[in-house]
Design a protein that fits this description.
The protein is α/β, with parallel strands linked by helices and about 300 residues long. About 30% of the residues lie in helices and about 20% in strands. It has helices at about 20-25, 75-80, 110-125, 140-150, 170-180, 215-230, 255-265, 285-300; strands at about 5, 15-20, 30-40, 40-50, 55-60, 70, 85-90, 130-135, 155-160, 205-215, 235-245. Helix 6 (about 215-230) packs antiparallel against helix 8. The longest helix is centred in the last third of the chain and has 16 residues, at about 285-300.
Length: about 300
């Protein structure tokens, strides 16, 4: 049984509980914890309204199951001292005893349809809001890409993201399917499992900043290169930053990410002005070779 407790967040603000989405939409506040009745569980959201123009929405990555306590809110350390509002979202799928759910919901809770409604309601209550940023790493990067695609002029920042859930580790997506979509097969799921489809045919009007560790061979091979080969990045503003953050599925440090968020806040929605080194050539073979070269350099 997964534990629930707000004890570790005791100094963060009030907890507001709602029966369901309708109750939430009538009574929601622009700050504090929002514990929204959702199916047999909850959708937990934490909001910080700093009276700023930019709002950053945070999605967490996979969580370890040892002593896991819900809800889970990550990213607040990145926001310390930054002049931006923030919305932190805990993935309800973790209620099934999972470490990862990609914010894709389950057969009784179609989160990819429901969460945009919650976000729109919260954002409308932040009176100073003008510019929207989504942020997530790994599985949270998938969520940043998906939900960002539904909000015109938003910026989706994704770090080492999964783009296609079924190209990720079977040990991650198979337990998720069994727990959340038990009647579905890999070829007929009732949720978006390949986020690149959101970026085809002019459907998305957001900007994407894709950060990828060159030392993460599996995510280069199975996620980034297929994305580039299939070409959805040609239909939106797309910026790729390749980092050297060590071997494996490693994210950059806070010393890298915090200045990036500072820049995103400073440009006030003019995303092409982001002050970050981006790849001018998106040729998949060239990027594959850069990854191999970097990994070889780590062996020396």
């Amino acid at each position: 049984m997964i534990k629930r407790s707000f004890e570790r967040y005791v100094n963060w603000g009030e907890v507001h509980e709602y029966r369901d989405f309708e109750h939430f939409e009538h009574r929601a506040s622009n700050r504090g914890f929002h514990m929204i009745g959702y199916g047999t569980g909850y959708l937990d959201v934490y909001v910080e309204d700093k009276g700023a123009e930019t709002t950053v929405v945070f999605f967490h990555a996979a969580m370890g199951l040892d002593d896991l306590t819900l809800p889970v809110f990550t990213g607040r350390n990145l926001m310390e001292g930054l002049e931006a509002n923030a919305i932190y979202i805990s993935d309800p799928s973790l209620e099934f005893g999972l470490g990862l759910g990609w914010y894709a919901g389950d057969s009784d809770r179609p989160m990819q349809q429901d969460l945009p409604r919650v976000l729109e309601s919260l954002i409308s209550r932040i009176r100073t809001h003008k510019y929207l940023v989504f942020f997530g790493a790994s599985g949270g990067g998938f969520a940043s890409l998906f939900y960002g695609s539904l909000f015109s002029k938003a910026l989706s920042v994704c770090v080492n993201p999964q783009v296609n859930i079924f190209r990720y580790l079977p040990g991650a997506f198979e337990p998720y399917l069994e727990a959340c979509w038990p009647q579905e097969g890999n070829t007929s799921v009732q949720f978006v499992s390949d986020v690149s489809v959101q970026y085809r045919g002019g459907r998305a009007e957001n900007t994407v900043l894709y950060l990828q560790n060159l030392g993460d061979a599996s995510h280069i091979r199975d996620q980034l290169l297929p994305w580039l080969e299939e070409g959805p990045q040609r239909e939106v503003e797309f910026f790729l930053h390749l980092g050297q953050w060590g071997k494996g599925h490693r994210a950059p440090s806070i010393a890298v990410l915090k200045p990036l968020l500072e820049t995103a806040i400073a440009v006030r929605g003019n995303w092409p002005r982001l002050d970050i080194d981006v790849e001018k050539c998106l040729d998949p073979e060239r990027i594959r070779k850069k990854s191999v070269s970097y990994l070889n350099s780590l062996k020396k």
